[in-house]
Design brief:
Elements (H helix, E strand, L loop, with lengths): L2 H14 L7 H12 L5 H11 L9 H22 L3 E2 L2 E2 L1 H4 L2 H19 L4 H30 L5 H26 L4 H28 L2 H4 L5 H4 L5 H9 L2 H10 L8 H14 L2 H21 L5 H15 L4
Antiparallel strand pairs: 1-2
């Protein structure tokens, strides 16, 4: 299995998709966001799972593209909700056009994702559409939980893990499950691959939380400490709130809602100091390791040769060891 070859197939398929032409304001934003690139991890997972069972993955290309179109639809709408000015270093759709256009263009992307999934073989179509619809709803649930957490004083670590499972992990799990289903894999294998993806997705998000505080600014590609500055309830912050003594808790509370640029560096240093005192970095790394091991346990249970699992195993290691 050659990841670069599969990535080329994905990129070629995505460039050949036609969304529509008129009105231009509806379709141009779709072409724009899809051209911004990204890691294309989700369609790659579809193909990697498919190739475990059959070297010919042509039948999985359009369904894999559907997952990527859906993912970018969620990003387009998330950016509106987050009022994000940039996506992959370029103006977001609602900034370049406006929020109404971004909403409508996103809606068309969701419709297009379903149209692409209609290419699935008839005897597998109902199952795929049912699983995709369930996953799509879960992603929306995760986003709503995330927004709810911004308004809540207290959020438990368990609630946070549930939120990132829905918002981030379930789509990775579905991508792998989809690839397996398309090639007629046993139900038990499809389930193990889904759970592998879910656990990798949770570990991936926890790694993201960690890098936001402890990452190398030059490699991370965005402001280190951004989550601290925006008072985001990440795994690190929630663990600190749970473990903090009275003095540490007072430090965290005293910096909450202080957003001035003149105190930004001081705020990041103060909160990071509390994290260091409580060994939050080590505790986060332990959780990442736990979910990664759970993922590998499910990959080990998949009934194909080790040789056919090797690329997926390697990609998982790569995602977990990333520093950006």
């Amino acid at each position: 299995m050659d990841i670069s070859r599969l990535s080329d197939k994905i990129n070629h398929t995505l460039t050949t998709l036609h969304y529509g032409d008129n009105p231009a304001e509806l379709y141009e934003p779709i072409r724009y966001i899809m051209a911004l690139g990204g890691k294309r991890i989700r369609p790659l997972l579809v193909l990697l799972a498919a190739e475990m069972y059959d070297d010919n993955v042509e039948n999985a290309l359009l369904p894999a593209a559907a997952v990527e179109v859906f993912h970018n639809f969620t990003l387009m709408h998330d950016d509106i909700m987050d009022r994000a000015p940039l996506r992959r270093g370029k103006p977001t759709v609602h900034e370049k056009w406006n929020a109404n256009i971004a909403i409508l263009s996103g809606d068309v992307m969701l419709v297009r994702a379903y149209q692409l999934l209609l290419q699935v073989e008839q005897n597998k179509l109902a199952k795929v559409l049912e699983l995709f619809s369930k996953t799509a709803a879960e992603v929306c649930e995760g986003q709503q939980h995330d927004m709810n957490f911004e308004q809540r004083e207290q959020v438990s670590i368990q609630e946070y893990i549930r939120m990132i499972t829905l918002k981030t992990a379930v789509l990775l799990g579905f991508s792998l499950e989809l690839g397996a289903i398309l090639q007629g894999a046993p139900d038990s294998d499809a389930e193990h691959l889904k759970l592998f993806g879910n656990n990798i997705g949770i570990a991936f998000q926890l790694r993201d939380d960690l890098l936001d505080v402890y990452g190398d600014k030059d490699k991370f590609g965005k402001q280190v400490g951004g989550d601290i500055l925006s008072d985001k309830k990440t795994f690190l912050m929630l663990t600190a709130l749970e473990k903090a003594n009275q003095e540490q808790l007072q430090t965290i509370i005293s910096w909450r809602n202080r957003t001035g640029a003149d105190t930004a560096e001081e705020k990041v240093k103060a909160i990071t100091k509390v994290y260091d005192e409580l060994q939050i970095r080590q505790q986060t790394e332990q959780q990442i390791d736990l979910y990664f091991k759970n993922a590998i346990h499910h990959l080990d249970a998949v009934q194909v040769t080790e040789e056919r699992k090797a690329t997926l195993r390697g990609l998982a290691l790569q995602l977990m060891e990333r520093d950006s």
